[in-house]
Amino acid sequence: MNPIEHINVNKEMRVSDLVNQMKNSGVMGAGRIAKASDVLAEMIQDKDCRVFFGLAGAMVPGGMKNIILDMIKNDFIDVLVTTGANLTHDLIEALGHNHFQGSPDADDKELNKKQIDRIYDSFMPNKVYEDMEDFFKKNFEELSKTKSIKEFVWKIGELLNNPKSILTLCFQNKIPVFCPGIADSGIGLMVWGRQAEGKNFDLPVFEDMKEIISISWDSKKNGVIYIGGGLPKNFIQQSMQFSKGASYGVQISTNMPQFGGSSGAELKEGISWGKMNEKAKFVDVYCDATIALPLIYASVKDKV
Amino acid sequence: MNPIEHINVNKEMRVSDLVNQMKNSGVMGAGRIAKASDVLAEMIQDKDCRVFFGLAGAMVPGGMKNIILDMIKNDFIDVLVTTGANLTHDLIEALGHNHFQGSPDADDKELNKKQIDRIYDSFMPNKVYEDMEDFFKKNFEELSKTKSIKEFVWKIGELLNNPKSILTLCFQNKIPVFCPGIADSGIGLMVWGRQAEGKNFDLPVFEDMKEIISISWDSKKNGVIYIGGGLPKNFIQQSMQFSKGASYGVQISTNMPQFGGSSGAELKEGISWGKMNEKAKFVDVYCDATIALPLIYASVKDKV
Amino acid sequence: MNPIEHINVNKEMRVSDLVNQMKNSGVMGAGRIAKASDVLAEMIQDKDCRVFFGLAGAMVPGGMKNIILDMIKNDFIDVLVTTGANLTHDLIEALGHNHFQGSPDADDKELNKKQIDRIYDSFMPNKVYEDMEDFFKKNFEELSKTKSIKEFVWKIGELLNNPKSILTLCFQNKIPVFCPGIADSGIGLMVWGRQAEGKNFDLPVFEDMKEIISISWDSKKNGVIYIGGGLPKNFIQQSMQFSKGASYGVQISTNMPQFGGSSGAELKEGISWGKMNEKAKFVDVYCDATIALPLIYASVKDKV
Amino acid sequence: MNPIEHINVNKEMRVSDLVNQMKNSGVMGAGRIAKASDVLAEMIQDKDCRVFFGLAGAMVPGGMKNIILDMIKNDFIDVLVTTGANLTHDLIEALGHNHFQGSPDADDKELNKKQIDRIYDSFMPNKVYEDMEDFFKKNFEELSKTKSIKEFVWKIGELLNNPKSILTLCFQNKIPVFCPGIADSGIGLMVWGRQAEGKNFDLPVFEDMKEIISISWDSKKNGVIYIGGGLPKNFIQQSMQFSKGASYGVQISTNMPQFGGSSGAELKEGISWGKMNEKAKFVDVYCDATIALPLIYASVKDKV
């Protein structure tokens, strides 16, 4: 048994030093952060490993976009699965809008009058929808040529051509973006709006399964990163059944396993299904991802 | 201000008496249960109100299926939005299989050897996938004729023709079932399997938006019930923007708003977006749905 | 393996029927509620078993007082360990005051001006402190004769002589009440006030350990009920080390074990310490106690 | 409204840079961490402010001891209120023992046979109690001379004379340590053991209230830091009523306000009681303290 060494905090301390201290401490949340840093560093450095990143939660309004961009630029992600909401928020920012620092105690009736949409403590002016409408109206012919959700969202990224957009960078780096629940988002509403205007366009819902399962199947090893559960996690998990199970896993979530849902399920549960390899290195981090992800990622940057 | 009256528990007490006592108590979780009972009873009795039920979480493996069936039979639900997982588990049981009482402390490696899939503390034999395969192989020609996800899952229900199936009852009662994330499920895998065998079949991902938005738009009033957040909640919420906002709302979830995600967002947040009417009657219940839903529903049964 | 039977909810359903249904369902929160009902019923019916009840959380302002009173009257509790806060709120009500149904969204500055103290969504007029002052001034000579915290709080109960008071009923039924953290409460402030007026009175902090450990030691079997963790749980737990470990355990808490604190620790952790017998029957219920306790207790009433 | 700037993570990044980035991001957990850093830095640098530190949770087994030691050495804490458990674990380590990195999935029956006590995922050999017994037997005459809990625990610190002990440093720096619930701990058991051997010794439970209330009363300003709620938080909170309310507050907890208990109560609730000044600067951080505390404290070190 390793003794617990207490964390020493110093002036001008680097994040990676702090996370290393957490490794020596080794228990509770701190221990999980340190283990996540090790597993993530090993996962992204393993040349044989394809990294599947499942991004749920309000991570773009939550200020996490640049971390995703940095991971893409550094070739740390091979497959991105996310919600329509995160892609919509990425699109909104790429069109020149911002999310704003707000308050969860704001008066929602007042916000409604001011046409400000609240996402817990971040605010978004409702007028962003007008610019989205313009974008989709202007580009719908081009967008309509795509044949899968992946192609469609890549095309959005190509058209935006904005180096601060997740979609643009995924397109440019040929990182597949899977978003099976895309109808459930502002982007979905934009397509619905065009259909309502008479456009005859839709996309096949099952089509992208072929590609994500193929990537899982063909890889020597797979690694999974889950921020917040939901459909992104589960869609990656099901594709893992077509491999020997993921070899690496990092999950950051505030969902707890005790309530039985997929979002909070411990990664080890995946072993029973064959989604996680029984020899895999993995860790569940029970923490707000806007705290844990930057902390873990900053420490990983010093390791790779 | 109303004084808090302490809950009196009696022998042979009815659930509705207990929930009434919770109303007099009126605070914390108990108070929320009582309010949810009142709001739900009013919502389903309001002739002008269309009820949208968003069902996430592992509610079929969690033993909640018959409550949903009862609500359908009693015409309490007008629209069901759910995950592919819940539909898959419904299908599995309709094919004659069971989920089993297991343990979260089970050895997942052993379970994997025994081909038992673990969903927290419920177990499912992996062999159910074989019967699903048979069902889809046998019926795929019929299923392939459908043109939307809603038609597709209704057709599954029609073919199952099992009075204990959510899908069958929704089909028979013409209650639309929307499942935008259907690719993320065992049913999705079945379609993928047929595609891999050369079948040329897929479904349009945006198609069902037309119908759910139309129902929301055309209703005099709308009511929303959310079990567990996720895509079902959000998909209903976005359709509410095309009404005057929902007039009634009951949310049962263990997700907390403080972490910023849509699943845990308080219903009042929807007022800023116009998803919830500012005069709506609504309540957020912070509780495991397998406890709160039967309790609330049993008390509602005595009111209607 | 037992199949999961879905919960059937009926009109005029009894709570005990609902909880029985939860037993057949047997998973997630519902399963834990059902198991807690069984363990509690067996615990309080076992003639050889002494029942230790650890009550933390704002359970008196939360409307749970009458359940505790009923358990005392029915001789279901042998030892009560609680916080100074719960005893203070019991005293306040025994003096004729009420807690009130409030709102967590109230403006705390306004409440402060109105001299209303907020306990999440329950309100308490600050003027109750004046009546407490009067009570302690009037009775301090009598109270000062006590030699232990247990005697002191029993004496409060005797003086109150109010059949709706936990303290009075514990005094009358000779159920020891242990409150090692009594200084941390309104009652503590009352003693401090008398000391500030020159009264030379204090109580020994370790004295009551003798009795709680003796009861644990001398019992053939012990059972533990924990509402909400904190000092009450831990104080009982440590006395269990002087027995063969508790034979029965029911814990109802929203604290999660993953954060490492004693309040959220799973009962099984106690086996390592010898606080819980390795053959004990026990269950952890992850639920708001104002929901779970009435539900469990109402079902137990029909079993005993 | 301030736009949300996304967090940029760089190689060799300092913790203080990361936390500054979180400030620019400004929402959800990250925003709360940044605000806590600002409030804590201002609180400890305000010459007029007395800092009350409430430490609950398993923070010594959790590896947080050296942060507390560093805060004491730097004169950042004026009053420490903690649980008997944390003082016991501090004592155990001062006697030369360690806590060890364990696992929450360990077999508690096996651990019991090996005489290893589990605290979630940290392990403690049960034999530490023998050395505690020796320490208390050897020093009881000296310890018996103390007249208050504060003097008693200071005396333990003096006798230990170990520069790595919280108790020793508090004694040497004359920082009062209040532990009203001391009976609920291994230290309590040691006193009980001596009483069982016939020693006639006890300590007054209310005595220390005079001093903590005096400090609060006499200070120009007060600041409060709460790790994990429980009795330490509440004992400080009640003393704040005898000031103009705390001027600064930082709370780090995984308890949620929605369940109504004092541990999870938002700091703003204290405004209604007069425990928090209505102009106070304060923030609630919803996070595992073993993650949040080192992160916040490391960033504060670069500000002071």
Would you mind describing this structure in some detail?
Four copies of one chain form a homotetramer. Chain A is an alpha/beta fold and 304 residues long. Chain A has a domain at 49-96 and 130-289: Deoxyhypusine synthase (Deoxyhypusine Synthase), CATH 3.40.910.10. Helix content of chain A is 47%, strand content 16%. Chain A is built from 13 helices and nine strands. A six-stranded parallel β-sheet of chain A has the order 6-2-1-7-8-9, sandwiched between helices. In chain A, strands 3-5-4 form a three-stranded antiparallel β-sheet. In chain A, strand 1 (49-55), helix 3 (65-73) and strand 2 form a beta-alpha-beta unit. In chain A, helix 10 crosses helix 11. The longest helix of chain A has 18 residues, at 28-45. The radius of gyration of chain A is 20 Å and the shape is globular. The mean pLDDT of chain A is 97. Chains A and B meet through helix 5, strand 4, helix 9, helix 10 and helix 11 of A and helix 5, strand 4, helix 9, helix 10 and helix 11 of B.
